[in-house]
Design brief:
Blueprint lengths: L20 E7 L2 E5 L4 E4 L21 E5 L21 E6 H5 L10 E3 L4 E3 L3 E6 L7 E6 L2 E5 L20 E2 L5 E2 L1 H16 L4 E8 L10 H7 L3 E8 L6 H4 L3 H6 L13 E4 L2
Parallel strand pairs: 3-4, 4-5, 5-6, 10-13, 13-14
Antiparallel strand pairs: 1-2, 1-15, 2-3, 7-8, 8-9, 9-10, 11-12
């Protein structure tokens, strides 16, 4: 991973700099971000409010960039590749683990990235940062704004850390065994690597998943303790409900971080607020 700090290119500081982002919640960890010049889609899975059909119109002229953080079925569906048949200007940026797990063919994506890789064009610049689960997280710079989508980066075993002493080995729901302290160390190590690039984001999309159990906001709290955040957007809460994600709001308020209280699929938020 490059160690130089990120700086937004001066060429982006034009009239588009003051154009708000329009963010639409699709489902789970899926979001649509509309800018003045392009459309970004993150971790599309299901779309109960039919957000995506509204941008797959013949008269829709903005290029679409589709990001997939990893191969898990709640973050990726091969159906996204059919979008190119409806609108020609679609670019697919996928984590290499999707290819490793044979969820897609090499020719189906335009860009394959692993941790430490980057890509750019005239609209945006992308860095693939790490995950302590599968695949990658994303830093995207577009029109003078810096976005972070965590994918499955989180402190997933937080519920065990409150035990005295924490257990050194627990069995996960998938039948594997992990050391919660070692997993937290891996998670914090990924945050340290991201801080080598930047310590601030305009918009952060981050898991707040109550299925983790007691302390399910810990990973998000550890993130906002290490980064300046312009807007915190919870995600990955679909099986525990909208209100469970709101538990993160008071912690954001303590740090004067605006929090998007998502309450339905298809909800829309503008940034800056």
């Amino acid at each position: 991973m490059p160690t130089s700090r990120l700086s937004l290119p001066q060429s982006l500081f034009t009239s588009v700099l003051n154009t708000p982002l329009q963010i639409t919640y699709i489902f789970h960890s899926g979001f649509l971000v509309e800018t003045a010049t392009c459309l970004l889609v993150f971790d599309y899975w299901l779309d109960p409010s039919y957000v995506i059909p509204r941008i797959l119109r013949p008269d829709q002229s903005k290029p679409i960039y589709v990001f997939v953080s990893h191969f898990h079925e709640d973050h990726f569906t091969p159906g996204i590749f059919a979008w190119r048949k409806q609108v020609p200007r679609v670019t697919y940026l996928l984590s290499k683990d999707v290819l490793k797990h044979r969820r897609a063919q090499a020719a189906e994506a335009d860009v394959w990235l692993a941790k430490g890789a980057s890509w750019q064009n005239e609209h945006l610049k992308v860095w693939a940062t790490g995950s302590n689960d599968s695949g990658v997280s994303w830093i995207v710079e577009v029109e003078g704004k810096r976005l972070f989508h965590a994918g499955d980066l989180c402190n997933w075993y937080a519920r065990f850390l409150a035990d005295t002493p924490p257990p050194t080995c627990v069995q996960t729901e998938f039948g594997t065994q992990v050391n919660p302290l070692a997993e937290e160390k891996r998670y914090l190590g990924e945050l340290k690597d991201i801080r080598k690039l930047t310590d601030h984001f305009d918009v952060v999309f981050f898991p707040v998943d109550a299925r983790i159990g007691n302390g399910y906001t810990l990973g998000a709290r550890q993130f906002i303790a290490r980064f300046q955040v312009g807007l915190f957007v919870p995600m990955h809460f679909v099986l525990s409900g909208f209100e469970s994600a709101w538990r993160m709001e008071p912690y954001c308020q303590e740090k004067n971080i605006p929090f998007w209280r998502i309450n339905r699929e298809g909800a829309v938020c503008s940034f800056p607020l």
